[in-house]
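Hi everyone, sorry if this is the wrong subforum. Our group has a chain we'd like a structural model of before ordering constructs, and none of us has done structure prediction before. Sequence below.
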Amino acid sequence: MLKGYQELKEQTAKKNLLYRPVFYRVTNPEEKEKFNDLLAKGNIYVYDEISDQLRELIKSRNPMRKLQDEDYAQLIAQHLNGCPITDYGVWVFYPWSDRAVHILDEDEYIELRTSANKNKISIAERNKLATKKVGVIGLSVGQSVSVTLAMERICGELRLADFDSLELNNLNRIRTGVHNLGLMKVYSVAREIAEIDPYLKTVCYPEGITDENINSFYTDGGKLDAVIDECDGVNVKILCRIKAKELNIPVLMEASDKGTLDVERFDLEPDRPIMHGWLEHLNLDLNVLKNLKTNEEKLPYMLPIAGFETLSLRMKASLLEMGVSLTTWPQLATAVTLGGAITADTCRRMFLNQYTDSGRYFIDMEQLVPDKRPKEIFTPAATGKELTSDTIAQEADAALAGLGWSANILSHEEIKQLVTVAVQAYSAGNTQPWKWHYSGGHLFLFLDKPEQELFSNIRNMTPAQSLGAALENLALAASQAGYHLKIMLYPLEGPSALAAAISFHHSKTDEDLYLPELHSKYIVKEKAPQGSGHTTDLSVIAAAMTAAVRSVNGAELIIKTTPDDIKAASDIISAAERLKFFIPASHHEFYANQLRWPGKVQYEDGIGIETMGLSPAEMMSLRVVMNPEIAQLLADWRGGQALEMTSRKQMATAYAIGLITIPEAADTKYIQSGRAIQRMIISAMTVGYTITPTLTPLLQFAHMLDNKGIKMPEHVAEEIKGMQHSFDNLFPEAINKEKVFLFTLGKSVPAMGKLPSKSIEKILSFGEDK
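Answer:
Right subforum, don't worry. Here is the predicted structure as tokens:
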């Protein structure tokens, strides 16, 4: 232990409770004696610049005279009127720093200190402002606001409330020194104000705002004229507004992001809803609010208050890092300083009746002083000509000429019914990449190629699988109607979009048909009812799923069920789901082709976000990262772990992780694998399980293997390579095989909503019955 350390530390702790200066007017004999006793103790620093202050005062009172040194001497002597200069004015002692400072007394001090304010603030306005009382809650941004109010002398009393003490990470935005670490923020601010203007009254509430002291904060010593809310707590933000509205006190709040300023004039609009009415749909019971603990619980309140849509890009991106790489809201000294100026200026104009409105305002420096360089916007490459009805008819007629099959002729109504069931099949992202055409007794299936290249369409794997799944549903529906199929598959590598030609027969011709015990409800795009035939015996369901997959020639199913394997799969899948937002091509596809937001436009494909069973935090994450600039920021920060939340939650309840492989990559093989996928999905649903596709890792691995120049950050590519290595360790049986479908097996839950389907009129056309 250092010599005298403990004693000195205890002395410092006592001084840390001090924030009020002591005044000595030494013309009073009693105070002079006390001041002399103070000086006699030693270790006191004395600062006496009263001569210069008097010189400045004389100058300010004689703006039209060009005074010389001899003039100052004469005028100062007249001003002192026989009083010794050492006794004139006030000696102010600051006990926390042991400084004794000689200054002018109150009226002259205020006159001189505010002389440079004229005429932006007139003397009459200054005197009016001196009667105002302001309460500041929260002293990070609140420190800048409070000090600015004091410097401009916009009020005569400041009430400061904050329960927190200074920490090292506060020093990025709070003007103080390292010697103040551990000091209560209220005392730090009160000291700084006292060192600027010891005559300005400060009242400290080091416990912050509570149910017990809020009345005192608002009314003791006279009612506040304004409240400035800069606190973090949701409950205090709401409580302080409820009380302000009750007492008709205006509330100002600066958000340190884009110069956001909120003003609520409860003094002029007593019936105004708090926070502009943005919280009226929420439960504002303070007993509930003060028990909010997690970000998930606070989010529904914080987003309306913060104004999600108007947050800066970096602040939105930072929302995803809260509780991951960030422990508190990011704030910069520049923003805090600007916020202090904005709030203090508005408060002054409000007190002087120069501003009478309520509202939210922005002083966005990035807009006012912008970076005008053009932004790089990702645009997928075009894929070729559109699949028109004429093209479909021409390709169907050409194929029909080469078939030479005899087939049963079905009515248009029968075909509509069969295709309606077929298109309820699985498709990656519910993109439904198909068109159907019935002509000459044959049904033709086309790949409806998108107008732009899609990340998921590498090697045509996922769209071909979707077509195969639809063929499987078609076969099942046809079988229930008394028909069997004959199918001719076509390669998709060339310009033709034709994938399959199908004919219908009463005699069994489809050797691949796999018919477990089914009900029609299991071949539509909705989950099986919870508990429907459910069994927890994984060996039973694994055997049924394996049989379903192997019924397609060459397809194999690998299932992993141990906790360690599921954890390893969770790490890979969750990382891949995060990285897909950092790859421009997959980011664009996810938002443009797959995810659908509720709104006025009725969508017919993709996955509605309301059907995904997401928490508010998960939905917020998807909204945030929808902006590619935010995704780029998160990639640059090596962040975005919140984007793994949904996958990790899903994997935590998974019974197994499965992988389907085929011997080689080929369009027709992918189509056949799609039939295997659909058979497996149905097999799982019949016993109350659900299959959740997790194809993202496979697509990323395929792009790395094919090396076709998909743009992505270098560190993303490196992470994918590492994931590929981990994946091979998890599935060594799949090395050197084509990996076509990765999924998790879980218990079926009540459907959040049926996935939409394109109308039959848009995907099915008819030619001549030849």
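For your construct planning: The chain is about 40% helix and 15% strand. Residues 516-521, 526-535 have pLDDT under 50 and may be disordered.
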